[in-house]
Amino acid sequence: MDTTRRFADAGQLTDLIKATFGTDRQISEMRRLPNGSKKGVYRLRLDDGTRAVVYIWAPAEDYWHDVLPDDGANPADPLSHASGLDLFETASVRLADLGVRSPRLLLADRSRTRYPADVAIVEDITGGTLEELLDRDPDAATTSLDILAGFLRKMHDHHAPAFGNIALIDAGGHPTGTTCEQTVLDRAQTQVSEIAGRDPRAEAGRDDLTATLHTLAARISPRSRIGLIHGELGPDHVLIEPDGTPVLIDIEGLSYFDVEKEHVFTRMRFDRHYDRLRRDDLDQHRMDLYQLAMHIDLVAGPLRIAESDHPARQWFLDLADFHLREALAFQP
Asked: What does the H/E/C string look like for the chain?
């Protein structure tokens, strides 16, 4: 644990636990889960054996807080820094409406009286991640993959009124961009300029990257179909129940968007297991643009977070290096 940051301790969470489970409950075990960058995630065991997970959205828990302008939060930008209790709660309700599993919300607290930040307490799914199951027993994971494919079908076939952050759109708001593809193109161009100032290889390839982005965007035909996407759906963002049911986590980035953006990410993260999640009606031109844009995004974001005091700084630098090489060599 990084000692320069003030994380939560059991004593600070006592009032929240009592509000959720009763005044006679006490925390017997508490562990902050590693690797998160946007919020604090704590796994708790109570004195009666009850388990729970606590999410805390506080500047000290968010490693992006000091490396993004204005925390990067802009609800009108569907690609902005997605974090916060409001987004989590809206996403939780939307997924439940569709019959897609995410951790059940037990308490949402915005009062700042029990803890000086927004907090959610959710059920603890103890079966590990889908990533771990795929590594340990790929055959046993097929049931979970097939259920996940059904979940994705429900989400991606959900009729969206407009593209953008679901909290914004569901409240009647409007995004800043004109289309999904233009929003992705604009962000990718901005990120190319950003990474060109951080790496000489990106500076040398700047013109080619920009030209390729425009070429790919020009091939895309207008359409009205928009679905509901998770945004960062890898097997590490899926927990497994004892019966094999997958449970989606890190859901704050849920948005109405081109489903191709989701499939580009899941294809990368699920690798050889992606075939069970594949669908045959995707627009290849959108896939090409979003593929290159994803590589660029996975350079710009990791280079920024590596400027923070995140304990996995070298991992982010290695990730950025890999995706920069992929972007510079990209051939649609």
From this structure: CCCCCCCCCHHHHHHHHHHHHCCCCCEEEEEECCCCCCCEEEEEEECCCCEEEEEEECHHHCCCCCCCHHHHCCCCCCCCCCCCHHHHHHHHHHHHHHCCCCCCEEEEECCCCCCCCEEEEECCCCCCEHHHHHHHCCCCCHHHHHHHHHHHHHHHCCCCCCCEEHHHHHCCCCCCCCCHHHHHHHHHHHHHHHHHCCCHHHHHCHHHHHHHHHHHHHCCCCCCCCEEECCCCCHHHEEECCCCCEEECCCCCCEEECHHHHHHHHHHHHHHHHHHCCCCCCCHHHHHHHHHHHHHHHHHHHHHHCCCCCCCHHHHHHHHHHHHHHHHCCCC
Planar angle of CA 162, 165, 170, nearest 5 degrees: 65
Q: What's the pLDDT at 66? A: 78
What's the distance, CA 139 to chain centroid? 26
Longest dimension (CA), the chain: 64
C-alpha Rg value of the chain to the nearest Å: 20
What is the per-residue pLDDT across 267-299, written as a single tens digit (0 to 9) for each? 999 999 999 999 999 999 999 999 999 999 999
Q: How far apart are CA 262 and CA 148, in angstroms?
A: 13
**Model confidence band, residue 49 (pLDDT cutoffs 50, 70, 90):** very high
